[in-house]
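Appendix B. Raw example, untouched.
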Amino acid sequence: MTLIAPSLLSADFARVAEQMKSVADGGADWLHIDVMDGRFVPNLTWGPKIVGDLRRVSTLPFDCHLMIVEPERYVDEFIEAGADTVTFHLEATPHAQRLLAHIRSRKVRAGISITPQTPVAMLVDIIDDCDLVLIMSVNPGFGGQSFLPRSMVKLREARALIDARNPACLLEVDGGVNANNLRDIVATGVDAVVMGSAIFGTPDPAATVRDMRSLLS
C-alpha cells in the first residue's frame, strides 16, 4: 500500500489542529513536516518547538524533512520533539553516513533526500544506511510547484538501487504530486507520496485524501 503524507506546509496554520485531524480522519498515513531555514532553501518555516506542540494534537507518524544547512546540529531536537522519521539533504552536510547512523541509533527512521540536480548515483555509497530515500520532484522551498518530468526517471533509478541494495528502505517523492499524475508516479515504485496543496488547497482535505486513496486502489 502506498503511504499518503499530507504536507503541513500547505495547511492553514490558523486551523492547523483541525486540518491535521481532518486528514487523519480521511485516512492519511503520515504527516509531512517541512523544516526550512532560509539558507538551504529560500523560505522559513518552523523549528522543534512547533513540532513538539503539533505532536500533542496528533497520533499520526511525523515525517520531518529538514531542508536546512548543518542538519547534524538539530536532528536530536527534532527527534525529542516527536519526529518518527528525520530526513535531511545529502547536499547539506559533508558526513551523511555518520548522520544517518546517528539518527538510526536514536530509534527513528533515517532518511536522505536529494534535490532535482543531484543524481541518484550519489546515493550508492550510503544506501545501505538509509531507511528512506526522498526524491524531490520540485526545487525545494515552496509549495504549489509543478512536478518536474525528469523526476520519473530518477524515481525508477532510485527504486532499482533500493531493490538491489536495501529492499527494506522506503522510497518517497515530494513535489507537485496531484490527482492528475498520482497513478503514473506510484507506478514507478514509490512507497510514500507527499502531497501539500493538492490536499490542503481543497475545501475538504479529508474527502480529498479519500479520493487520492481511491485512485490507488
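End of appendix B.
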